[in-house]
Model the fold of this input.
Amino acid sequence: MSWERELRVLNEAIRRLNAEYDAFLFGSVPKPPIESRRRVEEMFRQLGQSATDVAADRYQFSTLQGRFTSLCERWERLQAEKESGRRPGVHGGFASPASALAVPHPNAAPSGSVEAGRGAAGSRDRELYDRWVAAQRDRGEDVGGLRLETFLERLTEERRKLKARGVTEVDFDVVQRDGRVKLVAKAPKSPK
Done:
């Protein structure tokens, strides 16, 4: 077979293997596709042993190797998360029936997201969070792990620090500086 055809077959095998791993990791298949993975690895070994004089074929082969390696790392990470009882790809655990019924400690502080969501200040903070996430997304950043609660905790901490320095009122704004999305403190707008 020609290298071009072999590379097309290998690319399709990687695509199918990725679909099989997704089916395993996210619940519809009980066992990992070990045999399919062995076949793809064998295809890589056979192609790696044969020589080609076409630079484009060698480049495409090394690209497929890199893609397969990164997919293997992803599969290993997600499988480890699944085996540890966490939902693969989501940084949170499965709730057990006992923990779902557990009563929180009576002396626990109120949830920051509940308190911060009340009144005009809460809606301004939510709007700020939405603008911050949108700016991160526009820069091509992964926003899947961003949480409103964490953002509000950071805002509260920054306000506390500013208050300790004597600044009683402050607004925050989203800016892009030095290739990064940042929050900056500014004096509040005076009502007209």
In short: The two ends are 77 Å apart (CA to CA). Residues 15 and 119 are 50 Å apart (CA to CA). The beta strands are 171-177, 180-186. Residues 55-83 form the longest helix (29 residues).
